[in-house]
Amino acid sequence: MSAALGVALLGGGTGACGTGAGSSSGGSAEATAPVTPAEAVVKAAEDSADITSLRYRITGSVPDRGRLTVDAAMDTAPLAMSMELTTADQRAKGPLNVRFAGKALYAGGSALDTQKLGRLAKLDAQELNGKSWLRIEPAAWGRGAVDNKSYGVLPRQIEGSPVLQSTLLTGSKNTKKTGAETIDGARTTHYRGTVTFDGLRAAQQAATDKASRERQTNSLDQFMALGLDKNLIMDLWIDDDGRTRQFRMRGATYKARVSADGEPLKPVVGDPIDMTITFLRINEPVTVRIPSAGDTTDLGALLDAQTG
Predict the structure, then answer these.
(1) Which of 29, 50, 95, 149 could make a disulfide contact with 86, Cβ separation 3.0–4.6 Å?
(2) Cβ contacts of 175 within 8 Å, gap of 6 or more
(3) Backbone angles phi and psi of 139, in degrees to 5
(4) Count of CB atoms within 10 A of residue 35's CB?
């Protein structure tokens, strides 16, 4: 499963060596050429393929939900995730607890009654029959733009794996180094660039081998999942080991529209996305605990009861 969450490797090295001439001892001196911003970003994307578990934090704002904070952990084999999510309309109630395991989503917490699920306007303790968790199947998280399914429990921008999202800057043609910063106690180099759909598509079509084509396909898919109107401004912080420690994504999103008779209309610019994702712990043990069957209520059963 980690292969599915990783990115394919790009060919080419990130450094070069040169041999000095004219040494008085007749020997040679080697020097490593500076790594370019593009090479550093590719190296970090390559290393992300080795991430098998991750604890991370999300802060920022997304369309329809506004400001949010997320503390989450994920494992890749098998794919599972646990999350505490607090959005603007949940702050008074506390976080929404979310679990993904197998093909099921589990949602619980005092903020559960702020969610709109299926034909349920919102849920309360009475509808849950005294249970703490709601179970929904089939569900999927951390996959492609089309495959993700959280039934509106999660904003679409955090349905994707942060490991894959962190590789988007490899599609930028103007990546630049902006300086050095400390992130969560680690010394990092800060890079920034602009990512476009056309740029990612061109890189995908120009790929000459299976590995790079797979990586570009993954990046293009993650760009689409964000629902961006045009461009994505992306910042990436890479530590001294060449590994991603943090990234930020900013851009306008589009809002789909339909006419009174259901015909699609030209989309309009929606609310912006501005999310910062920090990798807190990489490849440390993660356990996603599934609620007991006796403490869960099935959404399908609730909908069946509503319709008689």
Answers:
(1) 95
(2) 37, 38, 41, 169, 191, 192, 193
(3) -135, 160
(4) 19
Report helix angle 210-225 to 197-206, nearest 10.
160
Kindly state whether residue 67 falls inside one of the protein's structural domains: yes
Structure tokens at 130: 């005294």
- What pLDDT was estimated at residue 146? 83
This prediction's pTM: 0.83
pLDDT at residue 92, as a whole number: 67
Residues shown for the chain: 308
What are the φ and ψ backbone dihedral angles of 154, each rounded to 5 degrees? -110, 145
Whether residue 18 lies inside any domain: the answer is no
Single-letter residue type at 33: A
How far apart, in whole angstroms, are the C-alpha atoms of residue 119 and residue 306? 9
Residue 138 belongs to domain spanning: 37-306
**How many domains does the chain fold into?**
1
- Are the beta carbons of 161 and 142 closer than 8 angstroms? yes
Q: Domain of 268: which CATH number?
A: 2.50.20.20
CA–CA separation, 73 and 204 (whole Å): 30
- Per-residue pLDDT reduced to its tens digit, 161-214: 999 999 999 889 999 999 999 999 999 999 999 999 888 888 788 777 787 788
Q: The tokens 């329809």 sit on which residue?
A: 64
- Cβ distance 192 to 237 under 8 Å? no
| 249 is a domain residue | yes
* DSSP symbol at 36: P
Among 284, 288, 287, 240, residue whose Cα is nearest residue 54: 284
**4 within some domain:** no
Q: Could you tell me which of 239, 55, 241, 265 has the C-alpha nearest to residue 162?
A: 55
Beta bridge partners of 194: 233
The answer to whether the CB of 154 falls within 8 A of the CB of 115 is no
> Within a 13 Å sphere around the CA of 125, how many CA atoms are in the beta-carbon half?
3
